[in-house]
Amino acid sequence: MGEISRSWWLLLIRGLAAIVFGILALIWPGITLLVLVIFFGVYALISGLFELFAGFRHGERPRAWLIISGIIGILAGIVAFLWPGITSLALLYLVAFWAIFTGVSEIVAGVHLRKVIDNEWMFIVGGILSVIFGVLLLVWPGAGMLSLVWLIGVFAILYGIAMIALSFRVKNFTQGAGTP
Q1: pLDDT in tens, 26-73
Q2: Residue 107: Cβ within 10 Å count
Q3: Name one Pfam family in it (predicted).
Q4: pTM (2 decimals)?
Q5: Are the C-beta atoms of residues 163 and 129 closer than 8 Å to each other?
Q6: Shortest CA distance to 157 belongs to which of 66, 25, 40?
């Protein structure tokens, strides 16, 4: 528990960052969606180029897999720039599955944290919100990509509030336990 309690401020920063991101997404939904697609495209292109380079440069690794992975990354980056609509739909599904898997892991972590801290429920609430968010994205993908950005914004704010509440709970536990 000492490690968790000493890093309470990391949960606080994580919560504050989520709230700021959520507010910006709500203020500029169109820009947020375009930026997400562009960031993904740039990342996929750069990652693909480096994997391709590594595939041709390093003979001791399984070169074929690096080369194939690099080509797929480069193609994904090009698709993101040429067809941002398809890319944003793919990102919708990626975000949905990420939210579900992250939420489930946070629920499990919250249950384990409850064994250490009495009445600890904020981490579990964050996980439940994450799972609900992911499921809603899967159920209604046709609601529009801008709706995704609004959902991301609201989710980020609610999630940030849950993480901030958790950080203060962990900090108070630290002070109450007399740990530095």
Answers
A1: 998 878 888 888 888 888 899 889 888 877 876 655 677 778 888 998
A2: 18
A3: DUF308
A4: 0.53
A5: no
A6: 25
